[in-house]
Every structure is written in C-alpha cells, then in structure tokens.
Write a structure and sequence with these properties.
Residues 1-90 are annotated as: N-terminal hotdog fold. It holds the Pfam family HTH_51. One of its GO terms (molecular function) is phosphopantetheine binding. Keywords: Acyltransferase, Phosphopantetheine, Phosphoprotein, Transferase. With 1183 residues, the chain is of the alpha/beta class. It has 6 domains: 86-275, Thiol Ester Dehydrase, Chain A (Roll), CATH 3.10.129.110; 330-401, ACP-like (Non-ribosomal Peptide Synthetase Peptidyl Carrier Protein, Chain A), CATH 1.10.1200; 483-618, no CATH class; 624-826, Vaccinia Virus protein VP39 (Rossmann fold, 3-Layer(aba) Sandwich); 847-1089 and 1126-1152, Rossmann fold (3-Layer(aba) Sandwich), CATH 3.40.50.720; 1090-1095 and 1102-1125 and 1153-1182, no CATH class. It has 37 helices and 36 strands. Strand 7 and strand 8 (154-160) form a beta hairpin. 39% of the residues are buried.
Length: 1183
C-alpha cells in the first residue's frame, strides 16, 4: 500500500533537511517529483541516502537510498526521487498550482462524496479500517478516513487528521489522505480478490504556495481522486486533490500515484522473508512511526483486534519436504476447486473436513462434480459420488477417476494445522446450529436484557409505524399499482395453459372432451398427491372442470386456445420487469409431467441447473413486489438504528437472517448496515450449506458478517439463545411443517427486546405455486393450513399464540398491498392498537409527468418526417382510376367490417388488408382474412371478394416488414390508408405501446412516398382510428358532457397507457401529415363504444361487454348499474368512417358515437330474460 512509500519519502526528506550542508532556508515551498519505490528489501543499518544537487541554485535535488547488507554485496537501491524547493512568491509556482485549482474544485469533490448515485459507500472509521484490514492492518496512528465514496473512476473521501507538526511530510497525515485512493483501488475497483495494489511511485507532489500545513490547526479534509487503469490492467494511476473541508481551498495535489498489481500470496512471501531478515538487519525507522502489518492470503488476520493485548510472536513451523519429482498435485488442485466453490481459502480446508461443513451439500455437489471434471479433465463415477461425504472420500474418488495410485499423488496440502487460526477477517464461520435441550424461552429475561444494546419497544413501534406509512408510495414507485388487474390475469392464463398442456401429455385432453363428460385422472407419484390436487383446483377455478367427490367433469366453458409459449411472449414483451417470475413459471410448468410422475426432481430442476438457478435468483432479487418489502426492511432498520443510543460497552446491534438462500435480501441490507453509525453484527443463515458457502464467497470481505447453517424448524444452538435484536426472514418461514413451532424457535433466538421482521406472500398466486409447487417441501405443512401461504391475520394468530407481543404489518389503500406483507412481531410486551396507514392521497393524474413522457414520444416518432424528393421520371403520369384502400388490423371486428364495406363500394377497386402475422395459423393470409369474415357472419359477393388482397407482416420493421418489391407496388397503387390495428388493453403502460408508434411512423413514410410519386396535384388520404379515451377526462375539467371535435391536451386524456398512446398518435399526425395540407387529407376518428353487428349481432369477444356476458353466464348473476348505455353498431361505425375517409374536404377530427342513449335498467331486463339470470342475482357491481 501507500504507507511504505510515504515513510521512505519522509525519511529521505528529513535526512536531507537536517544535513549540515543544507543552508538555504528562504524556500518555504517543497515539491516531490519522480519518486519511485522498490519495496523488495528492507533498508538495513548500513543504508544511506544520497542528495546530489541538480542545478546551480541548489533548489532541485536528486535523492536515493541504498544499502549493501551484511555481506558487502552490490548496493541495493530502495527509493529514488527529486526534491524541489520553491519560494511562495515564485510566480511560476503560483501559476502552476492555480492550474490544478481550476482543474478540480471542492464542490465537485463534495458532489461525489454525498452522491445518491454512488457505486459504493464506506462509512465510519471502524468499518472502513476493518474492510481495509485484509490489505493493510493499520495502527490507529494512521486512522483518519471517515467516509469514502466510489463513483465510476473517481473516489472522494472525508479525512479527519491533523499534521503532526514535525517535518514537511508527516507520514501519518500523508498516509491518511492517500488512503482514499488506496481504498478505491483495493476495495472498490472490480478486480481479482487474490491480488492487491501497492503504491510504488509518485509523479509530482505539490503543496499550495500559501499553505502552512504544519502550523495549521485544521484537521478536516476533503480528498478527491481520479483513477486511470493501464491498458494491460496491471497498474493504476491516481491523481489526488486535497481540500480544506471548511474553506474549500485546494491545499495540495499528488499527481500520478502509481499502484502496481501484486498477488497477495507473493506479497505475503515477501514480507515473511523481510520479517525473517529483521532478526539481523534492523531498519532505521523512527520510534515514533507505528509499525504497519501487511496482510496476505497466507496470513490470517483476526476479525477484530483485542484491546490492550500484546501481539503474540509469530512462529513458523518447518515445512515437510516435497518429493523431488512430483507427479500429480491432486490435493492442492482439489482444495483449490473446493475453495472457489465454498468461498474459503484453500488453507482453511482440512484434510479430513466433512463437505457439508464447508457448504457443499447435495445441491452444490452437482456444481462441485462439474468443476472437478473440468479441472482434472476426467469423468467422475456417479455411483461413487453418491457416497462421497468428506474430503478423503472425494480425494479417493478423484484418484480413481484419474487412474492414479496413492504413491503417484503428491500431497501438497496447504490446510492450516490444528493450532493455527481458523477465522479470516470479515468472514468468520461459526458452528452449524444443533438441536439442544434449551431451557424455556421465557427464562430470566432480566438477565438477557442486562447484556448488550437495549431496544425500547417504543422505539421499535415508532420506527415500524413510520415505515408502514411508506407502503402506498413504494407501491407506486416500484410500479406495482395495477398489478392485480393487468399482469396477474395474464400470469393466471399462462399457468392454466401450462396445466392444460401437461394434462394432455398425461392422457387427459381437456380440449377433446365434451361438456358433462367425465375426465380420466392423471397419473402421479404418491409424494405428488397434494400438488396434483392443487392443479385440479386451478382448472376448477377457471371453470374448465367441475370437481365432485374425486370425479372431474368437463364444463361448457371452452378450453383456452392460446399456447403457453405465446402467453409468455406477451408477458415478456409487455411486462419485462416481471420476466424472471414468468420465465421460471414457464420453465417449471413445462416440466409438470416429469415432476408429477416422479421422473424429475423439483430441487434439481431449479437449483441443479444453471438456467434454474439464474431464474430463481432473479425471482427473489428482481420481483418488483419483493423489492418493496426489502426496501421497507432496510428503512425500518435505518430508523431504529438512528433512534438507538449505543455505548461502546454495550456491543453491536445483532441481526440474523434466516433462510437467506440466494442472498436477495442480504444484498439490500448489507450496504445499509455498512453505513450505520452504530456497530452491527450480521449473521447469514440457511438450511442449505451450499447457500451459506455461496454467501461466504460473496460477502466475506465485510468485517461484521458471520455465516452458519441453521434449520428454522429446530431449536437454536445454545450460543444463539436470546442473542439477536432483529431476526429477518424473506418468504422463508412459511416453508415449514408447523408455523407455531417455527415461530417459537425464532422467538427463542430473539432477545426479550428483540423483533421479528418477515416478508411473506399473503395471497396465493398461480405462478408462485407452479414454481415452488415442484418442491415437495411446499406441500409438507402439518398444521391447520390449507396452503403454504397464510394471510396476515392468520400470521397474527400464530404469533400471538406463541407469546409474541405486538404484531403489525405493512398496509395501505392500494389493493396490491394485500399480496405480500412485511410482518413485524416483538418478542415481548403487549399488543398495542394497530399502527395507522398513510392517509389516502387524492388521485394524482400526473399531468406534468405524462406531458413530458408523451411529448418525448411525439418528437421521437415525428422526427425528420418529410416528403421525399424523387426523380421526375419516377412520378406517375397517368394514375389509375378508382380508390385503393389499405387497412391495418382487418381481421378484427371493426377491421373486418371496414374491409367488407370498402370492397362493396363501386368507387373502390382494391382493398389491401395488412394484418399481424399469425404463427400458429395453417391458413394463407387471404384464407385467414376470409375466415375472419365468416366468423363474424359477413358475406360478400364474388365481385367484392375479388378486390381483396391480404398480407401478414410485422409492421414495426422497416418497409412495414414487407419485401421491397411488394412495398414498391403499394407505393404506386395505394390511395388511402386506414390505420385501425391496435392492442385492446387498457391496463398496459405507455411504454408497452412503443411498437405502435413505430407502425404509425412507417405508415406515414409510405403515405409520404405515395404522395411524392403521385405529384403535387394528388392528395393522399389517411385516417387514424383513435378512441374516446383521448377525451375521457374533458368533462371533468371543462364541466360539460359535450366534447368538441378538436385537439386536446393531456388533461383531457384518460390517465392510462392506452389513452396516452392514442393521444401520442393524434399529436404525431399534427407534427407530420397535417403540416402538408396541400398533399394530405389526414384525419383522426375517435370512436365511442362499438357494439355488435346490426345484422348478425356478433360482438367482439375481447370487448368489456362480451366479458360481462361470459361472467354472468358463469356466476349466474348480473350487475346493477346506475348509468346509461351508448353503443354504436360496428357496421354503422365502418360505414361512417368510410364516408369520412372518402370525403374530399374533411375536417381534422371526428367523433363517431350514438347520440341516442338507453337506460341500463331497461337493458338489464332484456339480459335477465336471455341469460336466464335469477331475479335475486342482480347484485351491485362491486359484489
């Protein structure tokens, strides 16, 4: 690190300034340049400095330090550099320093130091030097860093350190300043943990001409560092700027501090050699300089220094001689593999260790075998692997696979001997929990309370109360509002489709059976009975089957036709933030047959495959609903810690996480704990040793974390009884046989003033059960539960039943808060009134936010629109007579009626139907279009049908996704475009409509090309089918139900993605085609409620009324509404829109709506009679 270089600079400068031949005292400024350190040898008693002058004024001096050692060998060069003496009145000196002052300012430093977007933050002197300890174990004399922030390739720090007053440099003061750079390169830069970075040079060190650091009483400094890594990655240059934290003045700069990368093992060997030499060669270091212990991978460092305890002398045992000609170093390579997997150092793996004790269980055993086979290029016998439980048996297995006898194997074991230290700084492994005959949890609470930090219940309730108030806000911020009405229904469809597909493969084809027909039972293994029964209930809830005394009967409800793969594609496209949940549900659901029949194991399916592990880790870490409650956990801990008064003698705030698994919660909590102003101790636990090993590998660099295996269902180990202030658990406790037993065991772990924080799903979700239902443990509950998950109220009953005190949970007005909760329970005390939820906020339509978002999309979609310039020869001289109409979305209800209407008009010679590609259709594009007519009972004469051409394409692609020759043909034939295609989903966010904006722009480009080819005398007609959603809020702010046919602002638009997207398209029309009124007839047609056909009665099955009728048939009920009906028949809408498109002098905006209203009460009487709904089943809409 920096300390050796700094000491050698200080030594050389002090030797120089005390030399008798140094007479000049007029130069108050000093600069050090071109300093290079060579820390390969200690400076012995025979070491001597040399100071040759480099100029006649004797203001620039070269310096070096060499020694010869006891043997009189050639001199060894240790350090070189230059000293420059400058007058504070030197104008060149002042100008040079002022350039640095302009280069970086204190405000820039402060901006990084307290940035909310920092990559990493280290806070608190105690925590910082513990983290630094594996690199440099500093004496307290070198302490000074209070905060370090890393952001991209810069770092900033707060240092509290006063110059000692002796010498120009002062090694303690200088080192503390330079530690900001050292911490970044060693602890924040993304690099191999096996390496460390050593400062071995400085290009230029300059202090402000007016600064007098030695005489100053200032001790608080802001330090800003810029870092640049070399192309080969083996060195880093850091420029350091030091500011007076009070005045903001730049006091000194250290340019070009060079850090070289060195393997920790090599550095450890170097210092071991230097330590051995120190018995005969003494370094002439001043007694005032505290020794600095360099830590290496070979030298375990205690996690905490023991106060007032002298360090024991280091003794080295003689190493056993290795054979002269080693053959295969199996032991060393094997331990290296195990160390990489478990997160331990090879030295910590003993020759007789049980694999489970280092975190290698059956799950990690799969990864272990794969890594061993890769390392040794062999194949391990599976039957022998089944019996491997410890290192000797694993070694024997590997030897057998290699065909090596014991005599061929070189045993280079690097494991520590029994009397060597076992704990490594920041990564101490504590014993696994074991069952014990512990005394009652209620024994001597006073004794437990007398030990350690105390948490008043009032502080706990206050902190949780404040956290609870954030629930609705966080629901909004993490995008979960509306989840139950938008995403969850589609996820349910995905799961139902997966079950239908699985049942078909198991011999129960639901689509092939008739209503009232009995269905065969699916085959399943005995241990899958509960899972199979659950799948039946999903189908029953979907009204596809009826269950009665074990018999399953088909209903009249049609089996959904969409395949699970298609539904997944829609989910991934529309809701990418939920990708991991949906992908994992599809992944496990696609294996239902293997799971149910016992041919596949759920644990191995998820945790035994790379894909499964990646997805499940994403579910825990990236699910937006989980993120809310991880954030609330952290918020509660932060608030509680801030209200806690901690005395040094009380010890740390102890937090233990149970069932920590993949570490999703841990990753959120640990950075927060590192920033707390109080001392903390965090224990990571899980039943699976493999998860503990993975966590140790990832988090062991933190000084306050411990690791151990622990089973929630067993009594805690003795050392855990009444030990924890806070126990955390995220979706873990429900996965036990008995909630009361698990809750009792947790309470035994808590101090009497402790608190339990659980994140628990409180509403079953199909996708969750399809994922975790493949685990046998999901269905092993033996208490009175009917499902693994429980409501918040049921949790309260359980917790009170085993003597917890106050129980509360997160809550709010947004309905999605009921899906999952953060549940809090105090270990003692009594139940207080439930803490309040935040007041319901007045609905915020976010006008400014939506205005900004839509304006950005309008500008992006309309960017660079123009009518292209084409050669005169390409202009059509004699255009064909008659109209050629291009319609998008022509297979839908309105689109089909539009196509049919235009084809029936004598002035129309051609109708081109541009439809979305159907991947599963066996029909040609034209056949599919004609089938759409048939499904909607539309009949056309042959003369009309002959006008119709159909294409299927992805219009989001350039040229509308069409071949160049087809696109060129359209550009010479099309005269009118009707853009009708649009996804009917009022729940999608605005961003989900991005593909529609691409389609619109591509249609505009086609229209512009047609206009160019037709020449100035031709006007191209374009009609965009919009929606009443773009004016849905106009009556609210205008105070009138009469809506004008004119351009609207965002205040008039329904505040959802559908309305905002239609609004964007209307406004893009203004910014493109409407700018060329002499070349285009462009219009917007806003539609009200489009009803069924006046002829056939066919109603779009995806409209809300069709869903209402289906629900009424299923529930045998109808809603009572106090409103009127405004419906316009679809064929009338098609005819009216055609009249508008073909008008030669159209307006810009039209509304198509039925001016005649009907009362819903009258409509209800008709529906009751037609659907056979009982009179007593007319209920409120909410019911």
């Amino acid at each position: 690190m920096w300390c050796l270089l700094g000491l050698r600079c200080d030594l050389c400068y002090n030797n120089y300034t005390t030399a008798s031949w140094t007479k000049q005292r007029t130069h108050t400024g000093v600069a050090i340049s071109n300093c290079v350190d060579r820390p390969s040898e200690t400076i012995g008693e025979d070491g001597f400095p040399e100071f040759p002058a480099l100029n006649a004024n004797r203001t620039v001096w070269s310096w070096k330090w060499t020694s010869t050692g006891l043997s009189g060998a050639a001199p060894t060069l240790h350090v070189t550099g230059e000293l420059h003496f400058r007058s504070s009145n030197d104008l060149q000196y002042q100008a040079e320093f002022s350039r640095y002052d302009r280069l970086v300012t204190n405000s820039r430093c402060v901006q990084v130091l307290y940035s909310k977007d920092a990559d990493e933050v280290l806070q608190g002197q105690r925590s910082i030097y513990r983290i630094f300890a594996p690199i440099v174990d500093y004496s307290p004399l070198y302490f000074g860093v209070q905060r370090v922030v890393g952001q991209d390739s810069v770092s900033a720090g707060l240092v509290v350190k006063k110059h000692g007053g002796e010498g120009w440099l002062d090694a303690f003061y200088a080192d503390a300043l330079c530690q900001i750079a050292g911490l970044w390169v060693n602890c924040m830069m993304d690099d191999d943990e096996k390496d460390m970075w050593i400062a071995n040079g400085v290009e230029h060190w300059l202090r402000a001409p007016t600064a007098n650091i030695k005489a100053s009483s200032k001790e608080k400094w802001h330090v800003f560092c810029q870092h640049s890594r070399s192309a080969d990655g083996n060195s880093v240059l850091s420029d350091i700027f030091i500011f007076d934290a009070t005045s903001g003045a730049l006091t000194e700069v250290i340019m070009g501090v060079k850090y070289a990368k060195v393997a920790r093992t090599s550095m450890g060997k170097l210092f071991s050699r230097l330590t051995a030499q120190s018995g005969t060669v003494k370094a002439p270091v001043s007694q005032s300089v505290a020794p600095v212990l360099m830590a290496s991978a070979e030298t375990p460092v205690p996690s905490q220094p023991t106060p007032q305890t002298a360090a024991a002398p280091v003794t080295q045992k003689a190493a056993k001689p290795a054979p002269e000609t080693p053959s295969i170093n199996v032991v060393g390579k094997l331990k290296a593999v195990l160390a990489d997997i478990s997160g331990l150092e090879p030295e910590e793996i003993k020759d007789d260790v049980e694999l489970g004790d280092i975190g290698i269980d059956s799950l990690m055993g799969i990864e272990m075998a794969r890594e061993i086979e890769k390392e040794f290029e062999c194949t391990l016998p599976q039957d022998e692997l089944m019996h491997v439980t410890n290192f000797p048996s694993l070694l024997s297995c590997v030897q057998g696979a290699l065909g090596a006898s014991t005599d061929d194997v070189v045993v280079h074991s690097s494991s520590a001997s029994e009397d060597e230290a076992e704990d490594v700084a920041g990564g101490a492994t504590t014993p696994a929990s074991v069952s014990t005959n512990a005394t009652s949890v209620d024994l001597d609470f006073n004794e437990a309370l007398s030990k350690g930090l105390e948490l008043p219940q009032s502080a706990i309730l206050k902190a949780f109360g404040e956290t609870k108030l954030t629930t609705d806000r966080l629901m909004e911020e993490y995008g979960n509002r509306g989840y139950l009405s938008t995403i969850a229904p589609l996820q349910d469809q995905l799961c139902v489709a997966l079950i239908i597909e699985g049942f078909k493969e198991l011999g129960c084809d639901l689509a092939a059976t008739k209503p009232r027909e009995k269905l065969p039972s699916i085959p399943y293994a005995d241990d899958q009975k509960r899972f199979a029964q659950y799948l039946y209930t999903v189908l029953e809830t979907a009204h596809i089957v009826e269950l009665d005394s074990g018999n399953m009967t088909r209903t009249h409800i049609a089996v959904p036709k969409r395949q699970s793969a298609d539904i997944l594609k829609e989910l991934l496209s529309s809701f990418p933030e939920h990708a991991c949940c949906n992908e994992l549900a599809h992944y496990t659901g696609s294996h239902l047959v293997g799971i149910l029949t016992g041919h596949e194991d759920g644990i191995k399916l998820i945790f035994g495959t790379d894909r499964g592990r990646e997805l499940v880790a994403g579910v825990y870490a990236d699910n937006p609903m989980n993120k809310i409650y991880y954030a609330q956990m952290g918020d509660f801990i932060r608030r509680l810690a801030a209200s806690t008064s901690q005395r040094p003698s009380q010890g740390p705030l102890k937090i233990l996480e149970m069932g920590a698994g993949t570490g999703a919660t841990t990753k959120v909590i640990l950075p927060l704990l590192a920033e707390l102003e109080i001392e903390v101790e965090f224990t990571f636990t899980d039943l699976a040793a493999s998860f503990v090993a993975a966590a140790r590998k990832q988090f062991k660099h933190l000084p306050f974390i411990k690791f151990r295996t622990h089973d929630i269902e067993k009594v805690p180990a003795d050392d855990l009884l009444h030990s924890q202030h806070i126990v955390l658990a995220s979706n873990a406790v429900h996965a036990t046989r008995s909630l009361p037993i698990a809750a009792t065991n947790i309470r035994k772990m808590l101090r009497p003033d402790g608190v339990l924080l659980m994140v628990e799903m409180t509403e079953p979700m199909y996708w969750c059960d399809i994922i975790f239902g493949v685990f046998e443990g999901w269905w092993l509950f033996e208490d009175d539960r009917q499902h693994a998950l429980s409501s918040a109220e049921d949790w309260e009953k359980v917790l009170h039943g085993v003597s917890y005190g106050h129980v509360d949970w997160s809550d709010g007005h947004i309905v999605e808060t009921k899906c999952q909760r953060l549940i809090m329970a105090t270990a003692g005390g009594k139940q207080h009134p439930r803490l309040p939820i935040a007041p319901k906020q007045q609905e915020d339509f976010r006008h400014e936010e939506r205005e900004a978002a839509t304006s950005k999309l309008i500008a992006k979609t309309a960017l660079d629109f123009t009518i292209p310039t084409i050669p005169e020869t390409d202009i059509i001289k004699t255009p064909s007579t008659g109209h050629c109409i291009l319609i998008t979305g022509a297979t839908g209800s309105l689109g089909s009626h539009m196509a049919a209407h235009y084809a029936s008009l004598p002035t129309v010679t051609s109708v081109i139907c541009l439809n979305r590609r159907s991947h599963n259709s066996p029909y040609t594009p034209l056949e599919r279009q004609l089938n759409a007519f048939t499904q909607k009972s539309i009949t056309l004469p042959a003369s009309s049908l002959s006008k119709i051409t159909a294409y299927e394409t992805d219009s989001t692609k350039p040229l509308l996704g069409l071949p160049e020759e087809t696109y060129a043909t359209l550009s010479t034939t099309v005269t009118h475009i009707v853009h009708n295609a649009w996804p009917m989903n009022g729940k999608l966010p605005l961003q989900a409509f991005t593909p529609q904006f691409k389609v619109l722009r591509h249609l505009f480009d086609l229209a512009a090309l047609v206009a160019a080819k037709r020449g100035p005398g031709f006007k191209f007609s374009f009609q965009f089918i919009s929606s009443i959603a773009t004016v849905g809020h106009y009556p609210f702010h205008a105070r009138t139900p009469h809506i004008p046919e004119e351009t609207m602002g965002i205040k008039s638009v329904l505040p959802n993605g559908y309305g905002d997207a239609k609004f964007v398209c209307e406004r893009v029309l203004d910014e493109t085609l409407h700018r060329y009124p002499d070349r285009f007839r462009a219009m917007v047609v806003r539609l009200g409620q489009v009803a069924g056909s006046s002829g056939s009665g066919y109603w779009n099955e995806n409209e809300h009324f069709a869903f209402l009728v289906k629900s009424a048939q299923t529930l045998k009920a109808l809603p009572r509404l106090e409103s009127v009906v405004s419906w316009t028949c679809v064929d009338d809408v098609a005819g009216a829109s055609a009249d508008l498109l073909l008008d030669k002098f159209p307006e810009k905006i039209y509304h198509i709506d039925n001016p005649v209203r009907q009362d819903w009460a009258g409509m209800l009487k008709l529906l009751v009679g037609e659907l056979g709904t009982p009179e007593n089943k007319i209920v409120s809409f909410e019911e």
